[in-house]
Design goal:
By secondary structure, this protein is of the alpha+beta class. The chain folds into 2 domains: about 5-75, no CATH class; about 85-120. Helices cover about 50% and strands about 15% of the residues. The strands form 3 sheets. A two-stranded antiparallel sheet has the order 1-2.
């Protein structure tokens, strides 16, 4: 059974790690390509395995799916593929990036008095 999530022009497809299910997934993608005339970009496509997946099964699935990479060490929409135990560590970078972006936006639209208040609200580490 294939399940899915859609994000704008990105899709996440989930299936069991078996050659049969991966072949079904390929058939679905080929049908999509034939029906809508859009080609799936395998250079931008990747696969993620759970840590319990045996290497032999991974190799079989990877050879079935073709030119896709293992996404264990990549990011998706700016977020890490694997979050792990330390969520604080993982999301600190994102929190800092969002904070800088918001600060930049606030600086552009605030009056001089508003900017002074913003500066006084910044954490001591900045």
């Amino acid at each position: 059974m294939v399940t899915h999530l859609f994000f704008a022009d990105n899709s996440l497809l989930f299936c069991k790690v078996s050659v049969y299910e991966c072949q079904q997934l390929i058939d679905i993608l080929q049908l999509y390509e034939a029906t809508f005339g859009q080609k799936v970009n395998t250079d931008k496509s990747s696969i993620f395995f759970s840590r319990n997946t045996p290497e032999e099964v991974k190799n079989k699935v990877m050879s079935t799916l073709g030119p896709m990479s293992d996404s264990r060490h990549s990011k998706y929409l700016g977020l890490p593929s694997i979050i792990g135990k330390s969520k604080t560590e993982v999301f600190t970078e994102i929190k800092e990036r969002v904070g800088k972006k918001l600060s930049g936006w606030k600086e552009k639209i605030l009056s001089i008095g508003g900017k002074e208040v913003l500066i006084k609200q910044l954490p001591k580490q900045f």
